[in-house]
Task: structure prediction
Amino acid sequence: MPYRRLRVVFLLAAAFSLILGPTPGARAINRLPANKATVARRVPPPSELDPGAVTLPHPDTASSPGAPSAGVGSASGRPSGSPSPSGSRSGRPDRSVGPGGSAKRTGSAAVALTFDDGPDPVQTPAMLDLLKRYGVKATFCLVGFRARDYPDLVRRIVAEGHTLCNHSWQHLIDLAHRPVDEIRRDLEATNDAIRAAVPGVKIRYFRAPGGNFTPELVSIARGYGMASIYWQVDPRDWDHRSTASDQEHVARVIAAVQAGVRPGAIVLSHDNRQPTTIEAYRTLLPWLKARFALRALPA
Ligand SMILES: [Zn+2]
Result:
């Protein structure tokens, strides 16, 4: 019967689309676990939330109570030169605050290196080796399904004294505009994957994919005890133009960091599939170390 056959075809197609996910890049392997029981269990009750965790706990932070994510950006810092969508209450643009009230600065003179999108089975160990060689601690913004896939790397990151940041389950660039339930499931699943590797580890930070924060997303992350971190320096290390050789790309990344970094800056780079970033940091780590205090964002 043709109608029946059509229905079978439709059901098969629906099943396949469920397996493959909504986009070609989002395979079943990346799909957000949607275990309601787990989700319900993992939502921290308000009493468990640590209000101190929502701002970067630096004593010299110039906080302004009531401002979005007050205290994460020090007003004493030099402006980054790049405009910020947020404004201060004085009417002047507040260059220390990122989208949605996220932090662009550490709140102290220390510079924080942040590495996004890993763990990567090749690049993350290379970056960890390099950081160890220079005795530098950094903050790793982990993607949930990769943390699930490479628990040994999560353990190594923590064992070597680096701190952790939730970078969402599968890097949905429009995460902020998803239903609140989905956002919560996403952040919880990511923290669960990280803590499956290192039980009880502190995850004090959250970075939205693409830095696409909204005040609501920042607020949801705060509910899990995570401060939202943007960046002040972005060398766009992922943006390897086809016209540039590896050497030219590395030189551009090095120059961008050197030109942009200031005391208190949060620096964005990537340890996922970016061998040239490792190359750039071979030069950048000793250069930065000679000029700034490099510290992981405190856990
Ligand atoms: Zn990312």
